[in-house]
Amino acid sequence: MAKIIGGIGTSHVPTIGLAYDKKRQNDPAWAPLFEGYEPVAKWLEEKKPDVLVFFYNDHANSFFFDCYPTFAIGVSPEFDMADEGAGRRPLPNIRGHAKLAEHVANRLVNEEFDMAVFQDRPLDHGCNSPLALMWPHEPAWPGAILPIAINVLQHPLPTAARCYKLGQAVRRAIESFPEDLKVVVVGTGGLSHQIHGERTGFNDTEWDEQFLELFVEQPEYLTGLTHADLIRRGGAESAEVIMWMAMRGAMDGKIRCLHQNHYLATTTNMAVAVYEQDAGQPQEPPLAHSNTQLLGVEDIPGTYAFDIEHSVKALKLNRFFWRHREPAFRELVARDLEAAFGESDLTEHEKALVRGRDWLGLIQYGVSFFVLEKFARVQKMSNLQVYASMRGESLEDFLSTRKVPESA
């Protein structure tokens, strides 16, 4: 079974990554920060986790305010690093753990956490700024990441209590995963800082010290704080510490702090801490099925649930059909299907399914009907004709089974 072996709380200030990339580890202005991460890197080297679960926030790099989720989980097999306006950081892509992510997403939704699910969205400094200081990455990272994005940009934010409960649910999900994995949960953000308005530059290191103490000893007190409480004590952007509360929830019960450091250079009191769970915490039993809502669906003839596993497998193919929203791409498909394939990076099997207009085969492979119907429009086929084809019938035979065939 998978097991959480510890937790890390860390700031994710973008200048941490910039200083790292510029090799300022021995610069007197930055050395106190980098020295604080050395015990964290050593602890990770000793523990050798398979997966880091990152509670982080995206800073309008992969998500924008036209559709900004409260909670979102990344299920990709691999994640790129975001270009945040000054070029992509010189870090390799990092592996995801699609199976664990699917399992966690299923469990969270079944526990009534309404998660958005994302793929192919790069990770910004909310993840990669501290990650490079904690894990070696040349030529590749030693493990995988499971990113869980939390909205801390656009109010209303989730409450500290809700984030804590999210962490508890993540713990239950991880512990019920049947594969043997060592998992570390990471909460990012904070500590005290404000970077907008006339209050820009606000810090309160005394509150930061109190927060770190309460985090270990009295997390229930912190879950009762409102966003206004956190803003008043630590500055507007310090409300990010609700992501630490998600990590704390995943380490529910008594914990001990093995290492802690914080350093205020300019605008943010940059902190890092390592925690381990006290012994004796009960563990969830493994689950054969993470999505109990679909138990038995395989026994329903001719029915193919579009789930995360199929979505990950057929992402590029679904995107190929989704692009039929674009007039220029529709025209290219109609004019030269092979050229359209050249823009889509499909496998040979996927191309064969498209060439053969194998509507049922496409559904069975993992295509959502609601992107497939866009392709049908280009093929001058109605949905009714596609329905008939999937049933192995002519349109006339299919309509004869309808209550009012004349409505077609």
Automatic annotation (TrEMBL):
The chain positions of domain Extradiol ring-cleavage dioxygenase class III enzyme subunit B read 8-273
Q: Does Ion transport show up as a keyword for this record?
A: no
The chain positions of domain Extradiol ring-cleavage dioxygenase LigAB LigA subunit read 317-402
- One matching Pfam family is LigA
- Write the Enzyme Commission number(s) for this entry: 1.13.11.57
* Family annotation (InterPro entries): Gallate_Doxase_N (IPR034939), LigA_sf (IPR036622), Xdiol_dOase_LigA (IPR011986), Xdiol_dOase_suB (IPR004183)
Does Iron-sulfur count among this protein's keywords? no
Question: What sort of enzyme, by top EC class, is this?
Answer: oxidoreductase
Which keywords has UniProt assigned to this entry?
Dioxygenase, Oxidoreductase
Q: In Gene Ontology terms, what is one molecular function of this protein?
A: gallate dioxygenase activity
UniProt name for this protein? Gallate dioxygenase
What is the species listed in this Swiss-Prot or TrEMBL entry? Massilia niabensis
